[in-house]
Every structure is written in C-alpha cells, then in structure tokens.
Amino acid sequence: MDHASACAKIILCGEHAVVYTRPAIAVPIHDLRAHATFTPQAGGALHVHLEDLDERWVWSTHLQHPLAVVISHTLDTLGQTPPSGMLQVRSDIPIGGGLGSSAAVATAVVRVLAQALHHPLPPDEVARLVYEGEKLWHGTPSGIDNTVIAYEQPIWFVKGAPPEPFELSHPIPLVIADSGQAAATRDVVAYVRQQWEAQKARYEALFDAIGHVVHRARDALVRADWPELGALLNENHYLLEQMGVSSPQLDALVQAAREAGAWGAKLAGAGWGGNVIALAPPSRAGEIVHALRRAGAQHVYTTGVTP
Ligand code: MEV
Fold it and tell me: Which of 13, 16, 95 is the best mutation target for the ligand 1 pocket, counting ligand atoms within 8 Å of the beta carbon and taking the most?
C-alpha cells in the first residue's frame, strides 16, 4: 500500500491580480492536508473512491473528471499504464474555501501514483500535472495554488515565470477564519474578467496597486515586520473590495479581527466567501479567535505558517 499527502495553501496577498501577471505570495498550511492511498488489487482496473464526495469511478482516458484528466497526464508523463487497484482520496481541507482543496487532492493523487509506480516526480512536474486539473475546475487559473502546494514552501509567483520558493526567517502569526460561505473560484474569476473587459483602465489600476502592495509585503515578510505587513494586508483587502470580490460577511470578519487587535486582515483566495486571514499578535490571538467566532466564522484555525 502507498500513501501520499499534500498541504492546503493560503494566498497572503495578490489574488486575482495574479491572473493578470502581477506577483502574488502564497504560503503552505502544512497541518491541513489531503490524502491519497493506493492499494494494489487484481483485476486490471484503477478504481477511484473520493471519500468526502462519496464518488466512485473507474479511471479511463475518456473520463472528463478533472482528477481523471490529471491521472491521464500523470500516466503519460510516467510512461506507464494505470496500476491495478484502489485509489482512495480524502481531505481535511474545506471545499470551496480558498484553501486549495482541489489542487491538494490532485497533488496527493499524483504523488501516490508516482510512488506506486516507483517514479518520483520533482515539484515543478507535479505542479504542471495538477494544473491540468485546475484548468478544468477553475477556468483560467494563474497556477499559484498548484505551485505552492507542489513545493510546500512559501512562493513568490508571477504567472508565466518560474516560481520562486523562499524561506521564512520567522513563523507568520496567522489566524485563518472560514466564513462558512462556499464560493466557486471559477465564478469569481469569471466575474473579474467581465469587469476587466468592461472597465479595463480601472481594473488595470487596481491590479497595479495590488502588485505594488505585494512587492512591499515581501520586504515586510523578510524583515518579519508584522505591523507593516498587517497594514499591507488591510490595503490589499480594500483593493479586493473595490474589485467587487468581497462580501458583507467577509468584511465583517475582517473588521472583527482588526477591532480585536490584529495587525491587519484580508479575505484570502477568490472571495465572495471562503476565508479571511488575520495577522495576529500572539498576545491577542485568543481574543481575535473569539471575535472571529462571534462575527460568524464557522471554523478558525490558529495554525501558524512555520519557516
Ligand atoms: C485562487 O486561489 C486565487 C485566484 O487568484 C485565482 C488564481 O490565481 O487562479 C483568485
């Protein structure tokens, strides 16, 4: 039996603008994970069981399911026929919450197949294979989710350029709050594209402003200057609101975190639902968690992002 897993991710800053070639920073959340297990069985077929969705199918090249397509590309890359057996997939990562659940599930699957077929793949290859599924799930993704998850390291990401993984000198004191509202990344990304087409100058200016924030955020991150990074997260949230991808619920969570003493807070991911991140002084983390719960967060993770 083979087992592999993959982490969740959060976008620290730069979402949406990253689809339009501005930089973004994403970080892995190591302790929220998707898991894939492969058990060899006689019979010749590759059975797939997605436990959380209660979905079962038998892999074939004709299936259009994003995960089936990722499996096809993986087998092509490995130059192998499908192994005979049962592939079981489960995930602790909420679906539609902006934590990269689809990319994490696909990454765990690519890894377990590579392991079962004795052909380890480097992170850039894993990211490339998972991207094939992300296109089917999300429309026109930038590729940031599959990249940060494949590397399991903080990433400076510009679409079309090689990703730049980097080391953190200090853990990032983050609190992540799930609004409980699920939103499809595909719909939010499509909305931004429509708006950009209708109001190019305005949206280009918003993307430029976000790109500027992301450059300054990288400096603040390297210096572990949390008050500065917090102010930049606030600025980024304001720009996302202007873009039309926040929601009253996300704004309320951001506001609650700030009032409880966060250095800064913003929505993270596509928006209209999903998660909010707050940069939390350790002495205020407890209060911030309570404030987020009172403001309606369904789950609050105090998981830090460690170097
Ligand atoms: C989704 O996690 C991040 C977006 O920027 C879309 C993308 O980069 O593909 C909203």
Answer: 16
Cα 55 from chain centroid (whole Å): 23
Atom 10 of ligand 1: nearest residue by CA position: 270
Q: pTM score, two decimals? A: 0.94
Is 145 considered catalytic here? yes
How close is the Cα of 154 to the center of ligand 1, in Å?
Answer: 16
* pLDDT given at position 211: 98
Residue-wise DSSP of 54-111: TEEEE--TT---HHHHHHHHHHHHHT-PPPSEEEEEEESSPTTSSS-HHHHHHHHHHH
Question: Domain segments of the chain: what residues?
Answer: 2-165, 172-305
Contact 267, 233 (CB under 8 A): no
- Tell whether the torsion through CA atoms of 50, 53, 180 and 96 is positive or negative: positive
User: From the candidates 145, 178, 219, 225, which is the catalytic residue?
Assistant: 145
Assign domain 2-165 to a CATH class: alpha beta
Instruction: Report CA(140)–ligand 1 centroid distance (Å).
Output: 9
Please give the average per-residue pLDDT across 159-171, as a whole number.
Answer: 92
Angle at 176 between CA 174 and CA 177, to 5 degrees: 150
pLDDT of 304 above 70: no
pLDDT at residue number 307? 65
Find out whether 35 and 91 touch, Cβ atoms under 8 Å: yes
Tokens linked to 237 = 């949230």
**Sign of the CA dihedral 36, 145, 33, 268?**
negative
- Write out pLDDT tens, residues 66-102: 999 999 999 999 999 999 999 999 999 987 778 899 9
Q: Give the atom of ligand 1 at the shortest distance from the alpha carbon of 98.
A: 2
Give pLDDT tens digits for 198-232. 999 999 999 999 999 999 999 999 999 999 999 99
Topology (CATH) of 172-305: Alpha-Beta Plaits (3.30.70)
